[in-house]
Structure formats: C-alpha cells, structure tokens
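Box 3.1 A note on notation
Throughout this textbook, protein chains are presented in two layers. The first layer is the amino acid sequence; the second is a token string describing backbone geometry. Keep the layers aligned when reading.
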Amino acid sequence: MFGFNDVVGQEAVKQRLRKEVQEGRIAHALLLCGASGTGKLPLALAYARYVCCPHRTAEDACGTCPSCVKWNKLVHPDVHFTFPVIKKNSTKAAVSDDYLSAWRMLLTHSPYFSYDQWLEELNVGTSQPYIYKDESENISHKLSLKSSEGGYKISLIWLPEKMYKDNAFGNKLLKLLEEPPAQTLFLLVSDAPEMLLPTILSRTQRIHVPPVAEADIARTLQNHYGIAPADALRIAHIANGSFVKALESIHTNEENRQFFDLFVGLMRLAYQRKIKEMKEWSEQVAGIGRERQKRLLEYAQRMIRENFVYNFRQPQMNYLTTDEEHFAVRFAPFINERNVAGIVHELTEAQVHIEQNVNAKMVFFDFALKMIVLIKNR
C-alpha cells in the first residue's frame, strides 16, 4: 500500500522520482502540482515511502522492512502530515495532529480523494478549513528531533494553498525552506500552486503531474474494480484525466441514472407543453432533498453543454454515457447557439435559489415553464 505500483499511470513522473532517489539527488523541497485527481498525493506518498525504505528495489519500496510496515499503517515516526483543518473553538490552536485519525482513515480507504471529500470527512458545516500558523511551530519542532529510523525526516503538506489568509504559516514555512534541518524532505502537494507565495515556489523543485491517460484509468477500473471493458472506457473518457472522478462515477451511477431519467422526462414534457405533468415533475424533484437538487442542476448543466458540443460531431470532445449519447442523437439539435446560453443561465439561477432555500417546487416549476420557450427556440 502507498507504493509506486499503487499509482494509476504517471509512469514518466514515477520514473523521474525513482531516479532522483537512486542517484542521490533528493531535493530538500519538492512541489507536486496539477489538477485534482491526477494522483499527486499518491505519488508523494509513494516517493516518501521509497525514500524511507532501506531495502528499496529499482521499482518500489520493498514492502516488508520495518519502515514499510509502519508506512502501511501510516505511523512512520519520521513522516509528518499537514493539511487543512477547522478550529474547534476560538481559543485552542488548530493543527493537523488533531485530525490524524480521520486523515489516516481516508488515506487507507484510498489515497485518491478530493478536497470536497475531505470536507465531508471533517463534517465542517459552514466552517472553512485552513492551514493555520500553529502548524509551522508543530512542523519545526518535529523536524528538529533526531530521526527515529536514521534516515530522512519528511514533512508532507497537502494543499498548502489553503494556508490561512494572513500568510503567517507561509512566512514561517518559508524560513524552514530557506534553512532546512539536515536530511529533511518537504513534499508539497498542490492543486493551485499559483496561490502560493512566489518566494515559496522559488525554493521548491516543481514537478507538474499531468492528467491520467484514459487507457491507464480504464485498465485500472477493469483490473481492480471489475468494471466491464466498454464501461471502463466510457468512464475513463468522462473522467477527463482524473482518477478521482472515475471513482466517483462508479459510486454515483445509480444517482446519475435517476438524474438522467428526470432530465429526459422534463425535456420531453417541455417539448410537448404538458403543464400539468410538469407541475407533477416539479413536485417530485422537490421531494429529493436540497443537496440532491443541487447535484441534479449540476448534472443538467453538464447535459446541456454536452448536447451543444455533440452538434459539432467531434466525439473526442464529448463526455457522455451510452444512454446519454443515445438520447443526444435526437435531443442535441434542440440545443444550439440561440438558446444554450439562456438555458444555462436559467439552470444557474435555479441553483442559486436552491442554495438560498427558496421553495423548491416554485424554483423547479418556474424553470420547467421557461424550458417550454427555450427548447422551442431552434
């Protein structure tokens, strides 16, 4: 677990990381950056595990030495994690150590997860997670201690761009990067490196992690998740280079099936101008709960965009499931330059109103009625 063999695709990046260790060119600060879901965190974990392993092979950590055994449980004494957290109260310092149990649980389930999934794990409510200034003192103290295993001391910082807005953590981190303790490795994993202080960027070795190849995603879905080849290829295409999105597609198939049926139902009713049935449709949607209503509206926006693009007959630009594509054959001509912006605008307005707790029956019936006019604008 947490080895290079567990990283989906990214062979060029893996080879570069392995080579730097094998040739003794370990940078004191490495920044792995790129879009969410491409495997930056799994790569950072695999690299750190490889650095720690005294019996590493040409391809990966050995997996059996005391260091690897500790890594498998995420309890290696020389590896320290920092990530965005929430303050439980205004007086107590907020540090990652308070949330290590939740962090380890999520990583053990899968190192492929998004920031939103971490928010769900934290159960933040309306709070916004940050990396606070207290973390810098925590990191400094840990790295000042003697290495328990006699090797590198590693500080892995996930989403450093989420540091608190006063930049107190960033300024103290900068000092650590300028004068790092001996045999110390900083691993920064960022979705948005442009939000980091330029002085921090200048003191890191930057590696861009590209989108995961569709073939690698499809192969992993087939071999490790038992997905049929045709479905795996379709999911890989829709994922658009993000293995996190691919995993989400597996888990949300049932919900998306319901959203597809609701979307198709509304479009047909709007075309036929069946007002009574559209009111019943609105009442049905009002009963699925506000969070699912928001996801339905996001799904509808995607369907409108995909059907608009479908008209250009460029399959590589479309991200539709088999059922969605069959529907698009007849529906796409109704989404064109004259109405696509108007439909997306109405969907966005509906989403804003749902988030503001406006009566859902009114919101969805109003949108349904407007679709009668918009969908006829061919």
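DSSP finds 17 helices and five strands in the chain. The chain has a mean pLDDT of 90.
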